[in-house]
Structure formats: C-alpha cells, structure tokens
Amino acid sequence: MHLSYYVSTVRRAGFLLVTLAGLLSIPAQVYGQGGGRGGAPPSPKAAAPIDLTGYWVSIVTEDWKWRMVTPAKGDYASVPINMEAKIAADAWDPAKDEAAGEQCRSYGAAGIMRLPGRLHITWQDDNTLRMDLDAGTQTRLFHFGNWKAPGGEATWQGDSVAQWEMQRGAAAAAGGGRSGDLKVTTSRLKAGYLRKNGVPYSENTALTEYYDVIRERDGNLWLILTTVVNDPRYLAQPFITSTNFRKQADASPWDPTPCSATW
C-alpha cells in the first residue's frame, strides 16, 4: 500500500490514543485570517490554522521502555533497520561518543522528538517558527515560504521547510472557519541515532513531520506529532511514529539539560 495510507493510519491512531484517554478530538481554537480580497496574502504566522505556540510536555503513551530509559545494547525492536544498521547498532559505544564530542547523536531532529522532555514553540518572525527543546538544549527552526538553506556543514537539526496544510468542509467549520496541520520536511541532517542505544540514521535521511492540535472537553490541548523517517542507507522501509505532547500553563517546569550519551 502507498506510504500516505500508513501515515494517515498512524495519525488517526494518535488521535485515538488521546480519545481513549477520555478526550474529545476537535480542532483547537483558531484565529481570524489576515489580509483581504485584493490585498497582500497573510503571513504564515497570520494564516496559521492552529496555534502551536507555548510550552508542551511529552506524554509517553507508547514505547516506554525505549524512550524513558536507555535501551539495552542490541535492542532495536520495532525499528525497520537493515543489516548495515544492525552492525552499527551492535557496535554502539557511548563512552566513545562522549570522547569524540558526539554526545548529541540522539538529539538530532530524527530522534529528539521521541526523547522525554518539553518544547517551547514561538514565532521567531512572521515566517519562522522556533522550537526550543529542554532535552539537550536544542533549537529547531521551521522556515515557511521560499526560504533557502544557507549551505555549510550538516547539523543535528538540519534545514526544515514548513507549510500549513489547510482543511475545509465540516472540520474547518467546527474550528471556526479554518483547520489544518503543520507539515515540516527536514534535510541536511548530521548522522545520528533514532534511539539512545545507537540505532543509527545517516546523513542521507529525509524527515517528514505532521503537527496536529486537538482540544479535550475541559480545554486542555494536545499536540500530536506524526514522524516519517526515510533513510536509504539504514532503513528497510520508512520508520513511522506518533508522539504526544500536552500543553502546559507556563514555563515553570522548563529544565534545559545538556546532551548525554548515556543519561
């Protein structure tokens, strides 16, 4: 079946997990669209169908034993790795990573969203969303429009291009006229780990993410992230996960920590 079918299935499963916890899957509050007929189009910030800004904390509802603790060496269950990746994972040596200054290998964009921690999302400007993560004290930038990468060496967080995916019809009406999600594609990644125990991804990895927001009955907000990792070197097929975050009232639990190869 087509990859898009699996992605949509995982996204629906992410919503279902929250629903089974007693939540109502309806779109988050949205705001009026800027611009008018004949005028300049609204900026990505003004056109946002969902509000991603604020503080969010990861709620680990699946894969607990691979996310909340460092998995045992050689435990790569559920990741569709090939033989080359298996050899690399079996050779994982956190002390060697630390000595080489590579302790951030599990904090790159393809792996960091699965680490327990908190996000702080803000608008850096009208065309750029900024995501700060307290795990590893990392920063990701999501660029809208015709942004061009500056070049240079690959980095842990790579180059991310963002776009709003608008929904119409009943779903949009329920959200007050606009509803949708954020799609982010990331390239030029420095090679890193999908898990803390050395399960690798290469510098050829292409990362695609879908950010959805839903609201429960009492007003609490959830951010549902569907991640698709494509790596022609180490993965036999795309690695698809769904990760949940809950909105926090303020920054009081924010706790930036440095990268660690071991925890």
Question: What would you say this structure looks like, in words?
Answer:
- β3 (118-125) and β4 form a beta hairpin.
- Residues 19-36 and 170-176 have low confidence and may be disordered.
- The protein has one domain.
- With 263 residues, it is an alpha+beta fold.
- It has 6 helices and 12 strands.
- The relative contact order is 0.23.
- It has helices at residues 3-20, 64-67, 83-90, 94-99, 109-112, 170-174, and strands at residues 26-27, 54-59, 118-125, 128-133, 138-143, 159-167, 179-187, 192-193, 200-201, 206-215, 221-230, 239-248.
- A 9-stranded mixed barrel has the order 2-3-4-5-6-7-10-11-12. Strands 8-9 form a two-stranded antiparallel sheet.
- 17% of the residues lie in helices and 30% in strands.
Number of domains: 1
Shape by Cα distribution: globular
Q: Could you tell me the strand content as a percent range? A: 25-35%
The count of helical stretches stands at 6
Q: What distance separates the N and C termini?
A: 39 Å
Helical residues, percent: 10-25%
Sequence stretches where pLDDT stays below 50 over 5 or more residues: 19-36, 170-176
Strand sequence of the main sheet, in spatial order? 2-3-4-5-6-7-10-11-12
What is the H-and-E element order? HEEHHHHEEEEHEEEEEE
Number of E-state strands: 12
Integer average pLDDT: 88
The Cα radius of gyration reads: 19 Å
Indicate the structural class: alpha+beta
Main beta-sheet annotation: 9 strands, mixed, barrel
